[in-house]
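Re: [ENG-882] Designed sequences occasionally contain unexpected residues at chain ends

Forwarding the minimal case from QA. Structure tokens:
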């Protein structure tokens, strides 16, 4: 399958319209705090690679965020390697694949971490606020929270997809699948 490339300058719009909540949360936390801990860098970094962000654009993106906090020199010294590594350009040159929902749901984010699945790892209050910021109505949010209480996290994510896209989904099992389905609907 040929992957289309995405442009760096489109990323904020794509994050708002086509990222699943887990990636949207990481993306805007990074924009806000100019930093993400390791688990977040991996989860978001590999997702962005899967979305079609080229290595040079990925480096520019992470450098522009981390650089604001720690300076670009320190970024280049301590963090650039890991990004090239994820693209298979360092170390064993493995081409790492983006994480599936299962892997993300089973991860165990600690204090100060922003990775994980919001349906699984957010408090009900924070999840309600996050869904509200996606302009979802109270009724659908209640429906989603009901799925979460029954531990049907991917079903909750699928409901969010359907409510924000006005379109059915066969069921979300991978953040990049969410993204691709979204692009098909919004930009057929
Ligand atoms: Fe992300 Fe999957 Fe959770 Fe949706 S169900 S927020 S795609 S990990």
């Amino acid at each position: 399958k040929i992957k289309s490339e995405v442009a760096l300058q489109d990323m904020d719009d794509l994050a708002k319209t086509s990222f699943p909540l887990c990636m949207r949360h990481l993306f805007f936390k990074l924009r806000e705090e100019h930093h993400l801990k390791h688990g977040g860098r991996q989860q978001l970094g590999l997702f962005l690679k899967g979305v079609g962000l080229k290595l040079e654009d990925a480096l520019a993106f992470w450098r522009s965020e981390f650089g604001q906090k720690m300076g670009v020199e320190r970024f280049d010294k301590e963090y650039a390697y890991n990004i090239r590594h994820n693209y298979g350009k360092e170390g064993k040159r493995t081409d790492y694949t983006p994480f599936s929902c299962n892997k993300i749901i089973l991860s165990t984010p600690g204090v100060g971490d922003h990775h994980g699945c919001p349906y699984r790892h957010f408090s009900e209050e924070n999840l309600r606020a996050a869904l509200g910021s996606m302009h979802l109505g109270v009724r659908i949010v209640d429906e989603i929270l009901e799925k979460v209480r029954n531990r049907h996290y991917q079903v909750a994510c699928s409901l969010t997809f359907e409510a924000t896209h006005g379109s059915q989904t066969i069921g979300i099992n991978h953040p990049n699948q969410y993204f691709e389905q979204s692009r098909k609907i919004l930009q057929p």
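QA comment: On inspection the terminal residues look reasonable. The mean pLDDT is 94. Proposing we downgrade this to a documentation issue.
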